Amino acid sequence: MSYIFKIKPFWFLFAGLLAAGILFDACKKDDETSDRIQLFSFGPSPVLRGGELRFIGENLDKVTAIVLSDNVEVNSFVSKSPELILITVPDAAVNGKVTLKTPQGDIVTKTPLTISEPIRITSFSPAKARPGSTLTIQGTYLNLVKEVIFTNKKTVGDTAFVSQSQTKIEVKVPDDAQSGIIVVSNGAADPILVESDSMLQVTLPAVSQISPTPVKAGSDLTIEGADLDLVKEIVFSGGSKVGSFTSIEPGKIVVSVPADAKDGSLKLIVASLLEVVTTQQVEMKVPAIAGMAPNPAKTGGAVAVTGQDLDLITKVTFGGGKDGQLQGGSATEITVNVPADATEGPVIFTTAAGKTVTSGTALSLVKPSITSISPTDVQFTKEITIAGNDLDIVANVKFSGGTEAAPTSASLTEIKVNVPVGTGSGAITLVANNGDEVTSAQLLNILPSTSATITDMPATAQPGEMINIVGVNLGEITEVIFPVDIPATMFGIKTNELIQVIIPANAKTGVGTLKLITSTGEIITSPPINILGVDPVVDPSLVFFDFDNLGLWWGDTGGPENDPALSLDGTNYYRVNKDCNGWTGFFWRNGQNNFPGPAIGTNVADYVMKFDVNVLEPISGGEFAWRLKGSSGDFWYRWKPWETAGPYQTNGWITITVQVTDFYDGANPIADLSTITEDFGVAFNAGASHVNACIDNVRFEHK
Description:
It is built from 2 helices and 68 strands. It is mostly beta strands and about 700 residues long. The chain folds into 7 domains: about 5-115, Immunoglobulins (Immunoglobulin-like), CATH 2.60.40; about 120-200, Coagulation Factor XIII, Chain A, domain 1 (Distorted Sandwich), CATH 2.70.50; about 205-275, Sandwich (Immunoglobulin-like), CATH 2.60.40.10; about 290-360, Immunoglobulin-like, CATH 2.60.40.10; about 370-440, Sandwich (Immunoglobulin-like), CATH 2.60.40; about 455-530, Sandwich (Immunoglobulin-like); about 540-700, Sandwich (Jelly Rolls), CATH 2.60.120.430. The two termini are about 70 Å apart.
């Protein structure tokens, strides 16, 4: 253990008298007198250097000298009588036995004398010191000090002292010392530690002014004040740290402002890691927008933005909350690609500092235009050509009767599209990528079909179920082929307007189309049909949620359930039945806990993710946000089955198949499943709906 003393002189006096008293009490003197020189006792022990040492005995007036340990001889007495000798303890005295020199021979004490060494700090100066400056400590027996300890446990050994004597130590204040008491130590295994009565104030930097304001990211900021050369690091609001300065001196620091610095105070960090927070605030400059051209702009095209300090811009957000891609530029002009799905409105420019500025003028967008439709007299499934301008941004064509189809080809001046079955006579509407719509002046005239055409069939069915295919000229059909290349063998009624067919037991489940083959070899493709049922689990080692052995660690709603009326095979499944609004976590784990990604690694193109789902009630909005997060990114796949009417609004289990490469982190597809080391699971997000659904057997599968 160590001992910490705050030394007071009267304690030594009291201790000495007490010890002396004990020694005197212990003395015993024969009543008989003789000429023999005898020592009965001595003390006090321990005794201070410079203090009085007493020897009690008989005939002590005959003692010629007293020799302390290490041959320190005293032959000058404070007083000497037959019963008592008083001497002053020399500074050279050390612990050890004492010898009295007499004519009758040497008398050696049976016990050693102990010398007290009262290390004391009486003062230090200056009271406030800079790191690196010299501190002078005054006191007693400071020559015995081996260490000076500053607050923050910063120790300076005696080999690093500037000077050392019995009454004074000079030592440099360490760079990382903090304000507080000073402690000196004798360096022993169980050291004596002596504290100063007052605290040393270690100088910290002070800031009087920050300029310029506002300041531009990447430019120099000047900080003025005192003792600024003590600063080792500057932390800007937002967390950006700078440890290399353009220049630094006691009265001024010039530092380059980080790109992502934000408005707020600065933190000046010194070597002791203490922080000095400025009362002055840094204000970051924002760009000024002068104009955008062209306006109107074309989705998928580019606009040139002019103004000042545009090199600060890191993000440009167009109408609809769509972010454009910066193509570079200068402080006075930048080029930005307009997202294909952007809408009209003001444009928001964001800097790395998180500051935003909005364009003064709203950005208008080019819309497609129609000059002609050919032919206007057309049958179902036949192709029409639409001529016009800016047709390359058309995503969909709506027809009368509620049908719609995507173009089969598109260019700036022309698109081609097949007329869907069920279309009625009337105008067509072009739908741009951003949702803008343009309706034709010309009208289509739908002619009666002269070949086999399907006008109606179910959107969902199960293997073994008989379905009705309704249409015209169906008498020409000789074969019905189910996915994948599974011919139907069992039929019911077959007429020119109706074919009843039983779905083969081995037809592929999921969403697909039928092929109807005529006697002349013509192939008619059906509308999509969802053949209900689940795919078998091919490789159990690639399953990562089954809610039996592989359950969830956390979630906001729902949980494992085992209702025989709903279970796929009598085992557990996950069930949620709740009104969801915004982010609602379903089931999650993390840390690669039973996640089979490492077994797949970079072979992501060879695998799909599958999950079995039973949507018990129609879901009106939102999405199932599947997440795979790890060291290479935060990858998402957003499943929105309700955007397509019918196929997924079921009361039965189906298997959903997702390409692993459809998981994206921004514009980057996932490339390595072994890097998924954090969260994985699914949540409802980006909308509101009542969700009543079951999920089971989330897995990867080789294609």
